[in-house]
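Exercise 7.
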Amino acid sequence: MTQRVARAGIVFALLFVLYQSAEGVGGRLLHSEMVQSTLMVACVVVAWPLSRWLGYRGYGAYALDRAPLSFAWLAGGLVVACAAKALAIGVGEKLGVYAATGASFSTAGFAALGAGLPMMLLSTFVPSIAEDILARGFWYRAAGIRWRRGLAFVAFSAGYFVLNHIYRLERGPSEWLMIFCMGLAYATALWRAGTLWAAVGLHWGWNLANGVLDPLLPADTLDVHGSNLLTSAVHLLLVALLFGVPVSRRSAATDAR
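Solution. The predicted structure, written as tokens, is:
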């Protein structure tokens, strides 16, 4: 038991250093997108042998599996998150949080999206899954914690998600609230579905939507705190929706030992 805890601690430390180094070293110290991207990819790649070292198959230590239902959660999360982002923009424009800067769904917007979509898919997927492994999948399974209540896991994971954004903590309470609410939605998705792909779908979908909707619904942010509150509200709505989805709690997605 002691050896397992020690191994889990080492795994977390290695993943944490790689993930935080992507921005800290690659972005802020060296100002190199290449280094930043390489370190982020390394975080995802290294997670595989570390999962094996903990005694799991594949990425099973983080509840990432290859079950068809899990990929259905991934696809559904992508669609729902993009729709949620569009809803936030629409409501925000009516409330004066955002101001449209161009025509919605224009031909030029679709052309710009088509040109940038392949790289956008990759550049949003890697950071999303890396952080989901660190902030959710690891604590759900690899850490070896026997979560007796979903609420305890969700609250812990969401709290850690806030602290994991060490370079954004200086932005203040509205930023912390937004990240916490996002963490609630993504951790709830994992707990309800039993697979990290459900969280990845929502997290990746939200990050992807920021890039996808920028040329389709061009707008400037007029009120940063208002934008944070809108994002918080939308993610709380996602939590409610997740509890409305019938699921059979499976340990599934276990990629068992």
